Protein: Chromosomal replication initiator DnaA
Organism: Brevundimonas guildfordensis
Amino acid sequence: MEPYRVPVTEGDRIRADAALSLSGLALGVPVAEMTRRERVRPRACRARWSAMYLAHVSFGWPLERVAHAFGLNRATAGAACRWAEDERDRPDYDALMDGLEGALRTVMGLPLVDLAPETGGRR
């Protein structure tokens, strides 16, 4: 039997990567550590949960879409978002998440630039 795979758009993966990168930068955890398939240390796990929550609130994604974009299941995304919502009772974490949400929305609102060189039909 083939494993269940959900199609995820390239755009969703890019947005999830942006949330991971911002969370990693702000929390001092390398993205590679947050995205390992093996068990990660608690700090990396919480940084990944923060990134999932950031995607959920910044993009307005339902939990299933968050889970798919991060390559996890819906239960994990739900647990992550519940944890982050509870952590927002801490003023320092709440301020951090407000800043990250604003930064992510600003970056995602920038116009796309086509970096393909103009060849005029030539290669």
